[in-house]
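1st attempt posting a full record on here, be nice pls
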Amino acid sequence: AVDFSKENFMSALLRKGLDISHPSLILWESVSMYLEESAVRKTLNTISKECAPGTILAMDYIDDLTNIQKLENQYGVQRTKEYVSRKGEPFRFGIKCEESHQFFASYGFQMKQQLDALELETRYLTCVQDRHK
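the predicted structure (as tokens):
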């Protein structure tokens, strides 16, 4: 575990054997929304500058914190909001979907695919939901 606001996550990955001379897949799930914007930007900049060309970043993020109320009925949103509230870990960072391509491009990343919660639910959770009916 790394505290992105206080620690150098790249040092932790290097200690665990990451070889930045070769392209890597970096899976950054369920982290960015809990960080301050400065920590997210610092992380993206570090990945962009220190990892080999061809490195792939796969991550999730919240679409603009002001839009979170519109997502109330989507899979997992209400349960997630209740959980983070109990844990005292509020959502701190979000990106407006219409600005996401430009945001990531500013760090040298090319967005290949962007799926919202409903698309993820339809694509990956349909059979799970059918079993619970």
